[in-house]
Amino acid sequence: MAEPTGTHPFSRFEWMLSLRYLRARRKEGFISVIAGFSFLGIMLGVATLIIVMAVMNGFRKELLDKILGLNGHLVIQPLEAPLTDWETVAERIAKVSGVRLAAPLVEGQALASSPFHSNGVLVRGIGAKDLARLASIAKNIKQGSIDNFDEEQGVVIGRRLADQLSLRAGDNVTLVAPRGAVTPMGTTPRIKSYRIAAVFEIGMSDFDTTMVYMPLPESQAYFNRSGDVTSIEVYIDDPDRVDRYRRLITDAAGRPIFMIDWRQRNATFFNALQVERNVMFLILTLIVLVAALNIISGLIMLVKDKGPDIAILRTMGASQGAILRIFLITGASIGVVGTLVGFLFGTFVCLNVESIRQFLSWLTSTELFSPELYFLSRLPADMDARETTAVVVMALTLSLLATLYPSWRAGRLDPVEALRYE
């Protein structure tokens, strides 16, 4: 009985030859350089994709948390008649299952000024108990206190606003509202000085610069809203399922209301973020694609250079499948190792992205990721397991596909033609 010839698929012999072809010799230095650039391209492509997607996810999550932490998930405004029954309406809405807070508000624009500077602000009148339940404010008080907020008749302002006005807790700030008392000479501005009870900092410059919180009774008097409020902001347990609360809250209100949710209020902003994120993913995928094309060109050159070796292996009994697998392993090794190193590098950067930003800012003496432009005081990164897996699988798939044609061409090489001129 004749002994079987050939090798098992992906045997040690095939791995040995594949890894040997990856090691450069002087004559094959250029091919090895192409393989090195392919490895770097895939590594940087995967790492960049992971980092950019994580930063954009973190950016969206931080903004969403801060925006929804300060603004209600649902805003209820009156129809047909002012909200003079705001106390009973808010009480009924607060009893709806899944509603965390129903906070009556009086809102108005004003000019905040000090002996040093002035700035336009949005004044929000809110009850002391409701303010204490707003975690984004209550847990981020940097100066002063919000205890006895209603009794002290003081205001709570953002940290950046306090810095702009050169004020701190305990100082007085002057608020100027355009619509004050009505006189025979017309409407005069209302000017009143308030003690700063507390200073908060939530890390979003837009809010830290413009928000002023005032006791609800005082705000009603200041903005001529005696007996009614501007709106009722509703906070729910699950903001992503806001639609299911609409009918429940409408029924609980017991009066004609106009309702708008957080998605409608911020639709343009978050849609722009989503479009930018998708476009960045497509653009950065091209880096991995170019690196995969480098694998194709490098392998084709390697096959052409190793033509005589392939012919000798064929004459010694190596099958077409064995030759195909040898070059498949050679090309796939570049993609697999590049993807894994890129994944590890990207993960490391995501876990230390804020420290890296601070180091680069110190090194270049510039402020990277300015809070005034990006609304956040720190660079966020939130790695999503599904997205990261998709990036890794995409890179591995492209790397594997890039090796198929050169490997198939090596397996189809005719030994007679390869050795004819040798």
Condensed summary:
The chain contains 18 helices and 12 strands. The protein is of the alpha+beta class.
Structure explained in plain terms:
The chain is α+β, with helices and mostly antiparallel strands. It is 56% helix and 18% strand. The chain contains 18 helices and twelve strands. A hairpin with a 4-residue loop joins strand 2 (99-113) and strand 3. Helix 2 (29-70) crosses helix 14, helix 2 (29-70) packs antiparallel against helix 17 (385-411) and helix 12 runs antiparallel to helix 14. The longest helix has 42 residues, at 29-70.
* Number of strand segments: 12
Average of per-residue pLDDT values: 81
Helix and strand composition category: alpha+beta
Q: Helix amount, in percent? A: 55-70%
SS field, number of helical segments: 18
H/E element sequence: HHEHEEHHEHEHEEEEHEHEHEHHHHHHHH
Taking pLDDT < 50 over at least 5 consecutive residues as the criterion, the unreliable ranges are none
* Biggest sheet descriptor: 6 strands, mixed, barrel
Global morphology: elongated
Kindly report the spatial arrangement of strands forming the biggest sheet: 2-3-10-5-9-6
Query: What's the gyration radius in Å?
Result: 33 Å
Strand portion: 15-25%
Measure the end-to-end span.
36 Å
